């Protein structure tokens, strides 16, 4: 009796172990099968972009000093071709100053007319002497009070025509000085500060006002040295702002820095982007800018990780159907040619057709988490389940983004 009991226990143990073995094998086969992923070759618009973050600044944001005042021309007494004697009146300004001929000669050209503005150093006309030497005549050749403007250190304000908060156009009069000269707005914008009043002595080099244009905005982003060579002035830019998550703003590249900033052995370059229509954006808001480098319609593309490299060859792994249900699924290595690419997708220009399935290299461990592809030396093609390495950096460090139609292949 004892003998039969022992035999029964042994049979039960052996049966249980066999069942555990076959069930575990079946589960393992199912898990491995589940780990084999494929994706279909898609067709659509593929874009390559370089992106970066920055903040909103004003394109025009500058101090205004009195070192470039103007005089208004009242009349011009000569024209091109006239012969003049030393001391003849050439130009009269509205403040009474007069520019006279510095020597005998012939007027070769006249650059101003009645009502013209004459800044310091402005060439009013050109005169040729008896030795056929032509020289310019400027406002500083005046015999009146404007001579002090060239070498003087300050002016006295007579009338201040603006106040803080005023919006001015370029050329608007800001200050009129007692010598008859005028300080004009060099750019359009808002007067954000004003530090002069009637009767004040105004040093030529010190700011008397500050102008900011809140309707002309830009953002400056930092671009990696590997990507900056792709960025050119005039390229289209899509901008988003943290303050307006669901809104996009258009822009264009206006400047690419010629000198980079090095940090930890890597250089980055500032790229300035003008915001075409700032809408409700405000100075200081944080932005993300995506610069469109290249775009192609009706491109065939697959995920970057589906393409492998072996020397000069690029290829994908295409699963093939088997006639026997019991046999393992087989794969073929298909050589392809690639085109443009971003961080997520690469264009296939030869070797595949839309709808073809390609294998994505992912393998499931004994647990239920997926592991990335294993690196194969030399990009080899191992037997059995393929676990080769993706080939090359198609997308660049900063570039990326999905195709514009947003489609993703994957089963």
UniProtKB/TrEMBL annotation:
Assigned keywords, A-Z: Coiled coil
Membrane-spanning ranges: none
Domain (YknX-like beta-barrel) ranges: 220-288
Stretch list, region Disordered: 126-156, 378-411
Subcellular location: Cell envelope
Main location: other
UniProt name for this protein: HlyD family secretion protein
Lineage of origin: Bacteria, Bacillati, Bacillota, Bacilli, Bacillales
């Amino acid at each position: 009796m004892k003998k039969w009991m022992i035999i029964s226990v042994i049979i039960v143990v052996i049966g249980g172990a066999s069942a555990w073995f076959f069930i575990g094998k079946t589960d393992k086969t199912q898990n491995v099968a589940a780990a084999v992923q494929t994706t279909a070759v898609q067709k659509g618009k593929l874009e390559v972009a370089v992106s970066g973050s920055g903040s909103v600044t004003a394109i025009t944001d500058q101090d205004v000093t009195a070192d470039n005042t103007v005089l208004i021309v009242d009349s011009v007494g000569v024209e091109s071709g006239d012969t003049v004697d030393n001391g003849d009146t050439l130009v009269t300004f509205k403040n009474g100053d007069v520019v006279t001929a510095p020597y005998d000669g012939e007027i070769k050209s006249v650059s101003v007319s009645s009502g013209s503005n004459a800044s310091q150093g402005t060439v009013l006309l050109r005169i040729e002497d008896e030795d056929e030497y032509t020289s310019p005549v400027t406002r500083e050749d005046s015999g009146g009070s404007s001579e002090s403007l060239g070498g003087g250190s300050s002016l006295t304000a007579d009338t201040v025509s603006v106040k803080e908060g005023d919006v001015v156009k370029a050329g608007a009069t800001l200050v009129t000085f007692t010598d008859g000269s005028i300080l004009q707005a060099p750019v359009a914008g808002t007067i954000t500060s004003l530090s002069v009043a009637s009767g004040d002595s105004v040093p030529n080099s010190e700011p008397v006002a500050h102008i900011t244009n809140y309707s002309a905005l830009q953002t400056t982003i930092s671009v990696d040295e590997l990507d900056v060579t792709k960025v050119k002035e005039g390229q289209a830019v899509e901008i988003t702002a943290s303050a307006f998550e669901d809104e996009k703003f258009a822009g264009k590249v206006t400047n690419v820095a010629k000198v980079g900033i090095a940090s930890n052995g890597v250089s980055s370059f500032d790229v300035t982007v003008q915001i075409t229509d700032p809408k409700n954006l405000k100075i200081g808001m944080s932005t993300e800018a995506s610069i469109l480098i290249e775009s192609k319609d009706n491109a065939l593309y697959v995920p970057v990780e589906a393409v492998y490299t072996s020397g000069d060859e690029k290829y994908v792994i295409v699963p093939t159907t088997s006639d026997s249900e019991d046999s393992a699924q087989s794969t073929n290595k298909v050589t392809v040619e690639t085109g443009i690419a971003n961080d997520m997708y690469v264009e296939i220009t030869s070797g595949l057709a839309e709808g073809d399935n390609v294998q994505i290299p992912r393998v499931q461990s004994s647990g239920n988490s997926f592991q990335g592809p294993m690196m194969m030396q030399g990009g080899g093609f191992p037997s059995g389940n393929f676990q080769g390495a993706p080939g090359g950096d198609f997308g660049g460090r900063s570039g990326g983004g999905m195709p514009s139609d947003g489609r993703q292949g994957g089963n």
